[in-house]
Specification:
Blueprint: E1 5-9, E2 19-24, H1 33-42, H2 44-51, E3 62-65, E4 73-78, H3 89-106, E5 111-114, H4 126-142, E6 149-154, H5 157-173
Parallel strand pairs: 1-6, 2-4, 2-5, 5-6
Antiparallel strand pairs: 3-4
Helix pairs in contact: 3-4, 4-5
The structure holds adenosine-5-diphosphoribose.
């Protein structure tokens, strides 16, 4: 299972996966961070398509074209804002990964790339988020042939270390 999960450092807008995931907000109308980078790289047609959804609840996911991005699709998911851990943040983050993977599989995506959802502006604790992400990705892959491969694209060395540690811990415990 773990051979189907990779951790890399880089800019997700340059990753030629079948689908890349956007850490969006519930408006789906763009923002800063990876959301801003994806919209800038995809071009204005991405926002035009996003407008049609009329927003997206936290934990759910919506799929669009990739436009000028190397990826065929963008899967947008609003992660939870960290408010101390008492407002279902863990479960909502888990749902982001579950729903993105389900949408990717339904669209025949063989490769999917995720950013570190909610660990930037939304301040979700990094190690906690990494453990949830790896658990949900590994759990989904155990029961599905698609996607064949999932890559966590980390924007900085600290995030990459956290996801590598989470994958190692999961593999040790599996
Ligand atoms: N490629 C990969 N990862 C990136 C990129 C990029 N080009 N740019 C930023 N990141 C990383 C951040 O360093 C962080 O580790 O994505 C992770 C998520 O951070 P944010 O983009 O701030 O997303 P999040 O914490 O989920 O907050 C979402 O921020 O940008 C707004 O519109 C967005 O309101 C929403 C909120």
């Amino acid at each position: 299972m773990q051979t189907r999960i990779a951790i890399m450092e880089g800019d997700i807008t340059q990753v030629a996966a079948d689908a890349i995931v956007n850490a969006a907000n519930t408006s789906l109308l763009g923002g800063g961070g990876v959301d801003g980078a994806i919209h800038r790289a995809a071009g204005p047609q991405l926002l035009d398509e996003c407008r049609k959804f009329g927003g997206c609840p936290t934990g759910e996911a919506r799929i669009t074209g990739g436009y000028r991005l190397p990826a065929c699709y963008v899967i947008h998911t609003p992660g939870p804002i960290w408010r101390g851990g008492g407002q279902d943040e863990d479960a909502l983050l888990a749902r982001c990964y579950q729903n993105c993977l389900a949408l990717a599989a339904a669209h025949g995506c063989r490769t999917v790339a995720f950013p570190s959802i909610s660990t930037g502006v939304y301040h979700f604790p990094l190690d906690r988020a990494a453990a949830i992400a790896i658990r949900e990705i590994a759990g989904f892959l155990a029961g599905h042939t698609l996607p064949e491969r999932v890559t966590m694209v980390c924007f900085d060395p600290r995030s990459a270390r956290a996801y590598r540690a989470a994958l190692a811990a999961y593999s040790a415990g599996a």
